[in-house]
Write a structure and sequence with these properties.
Layout (H helix, E strand, L loop, with lengths): L19 E3 L4 E4 L32 E7 L7 H11 L15 H9 L4 E7 L2 E10 L5 H9 L7 E9 L8 H16 L4 E7 L16 H6 L3 E13 L6 E12 L20
C-alpha cells in the first residue's frame, strides 16, 4: 500500500535544493533547506514531535535514502514492520497492528531476489521505507485481479509499501521513493508497468479527520492513473474492530514503455500481442 499522507502537515511537493544521487544501489541525500540540509524536528519513538511541530528543535541533518536488494533486506524488515505499524495506524488505513505487520508479505519480500527496500534515514534512525518487487513474486491476493484478466504478471512491477513518519512529510521524499523504485524496476526487469494499490474510504466514514486530503493529485504528478475496475483485497484488523476486515484496494498504474492497459486483452480474455 502506498502511504497516504492525509492531514494538516502535508504540504505540496516543490523543488528541492541540494539533492544528490549516488548510484541505483547507493544513497540519496535529500536537502530541503537553502543550505541543502534537512531541518527535521525532534521526534519520539512513535514518530511524533517531542516539542510540537511549531516548536520543534531543528536537527540540521541530511535525510539519507539507501536501497537494499535481495538478501540485504532481511535484517531491515523489522524496521519496515515498525514503520508500517506506525504510519498505517493513521487515516485512511486505520491499521490496528501489534508490530509484526504482515509476516506473509515480509517473507515474500525476503524471498524475492529482485525485490528492493528503500530506507530513509535521519542519521542512523529509519524514518521512512518503501518497497517494490516483481508482481510475479508478490502474494496471491495481489496477483489475483491480474490473473483473472489473463494479464502476464511479468509485465508488472508492484510497489508495495511507502511510509514516512509524519514530521518528515511534504519535502519530496515520496517523489524520491517513486523515482528510486522505478529505476530499480527498469534495472532488474523488462516490465512495461509499475503499479501500486491504495485503500478507498467512504467520505462519510466516522473516523475521517476533518482536514483529510487524498494524495491523488500527487500520484498523478508522478505519472500514475487509477484503473477503476481493478482491485485486490487485503486483510487486517482495523481500529475499533474485534475481527479482521476484508479491505478492497484500488490499483494505480504507470507505463514504463509504450504499452497500454487497454491493449492488454480483448473481450474474450485472450492476451493481445505487441502491447
Amino acid at each position: 500500500m502506498e502511504w497516504t499522507g492525509y492531514g494538516r502537515r502535508h504540504v505540496p511537493v516543490r523543488e528541492r535544493k541540494g539533492q544528490r544521487r549516488v548510484g541505483l544501489l547507493g544513497v540519496v541525500a535529500v536537502g530541503i533547506s537553502s543550505t541543502g540540509r534537512m531541518q527535521g524536528p525532534s521526534v519520539d519513538e512513535h514518530g511524533y514531535c517531542r516539542t510540537g511541530a511549531a516548536g520543534a528543535i531543528l536537527m540540521n541533518m541530511p535525510l539519507r535514502l539507501s536501497t537494499f536488494v535481495g538478501r540485504d533486506m532481511a535484517a531491515l524488515l523489522p524496521d519496515l514492520a515498525r514503520l508500517c505499524t506506525i504510519v498505517f495506524r493513521e487515516w485512511p488505513n486505520l491499521y490496528d497492528g501489534d508490530g509484526r505487520y504482515d509476516p506473509n508479505h515480509l517473507q515474500t519480500l525476503a524471498a524475492s531476489p529482485r525485490a528492493a527496500l528503500i530506507i530513509a534515514y535521519d542519521g542512523d534512525r529509519p524514518v521512512g521505507a518503501s518497497t517494490c518487487l516483481p508482481l510475479e513474486d508478490a502474494t496471491a491476493n495481489v496477483q489475483a485481479p491480474f490473473l483473472e484478466r489473463h494479464w502476464p504478471l511479468e509485465r508488472f512491477f508492484y510497489f508495495a509499501e511507502s511510509v514516512l513518519l509524519r514530521p518528515y512529510r511534504g519535502h519530496g521524499v515520496g517523489t524520491q521513493f517513486f523515482a528510486l523504485r522505478e529505476a530499480h524496476a527498469r534495472a532488474v526487469s523488462a516490465c512495461d508497468f509499475t503499479c501500486f494499490c491504495t485503500i478507498q474510504r467512504s467520505e462519510r466514514h466516522p473516523l475521517q479527520p476533518v482536514d483529510a486530503r487524498p494524495l491523488d493529485a500527487f500520484w498523478r504528478r508522478q505519472g500514475y492513473a487509477p484503473a477503476p475496475d481493478l482491485r485486490c483485497t487485503m486483510t487486517w484488523r482495523e481500529i475499533g474492530k474485534t475481527r479482521d476486515s476484508q479491505i478492497p484496494l484500488l490499483f494505480w498504474f504507470k507505463p514504463l514503455t509504450s504499452g497500454r492497459l487497454t491493449e492488454m486483452s480483448n473481450p474474450s480474455g485472450a492476451v493481445r500481442p505487441g502491447c
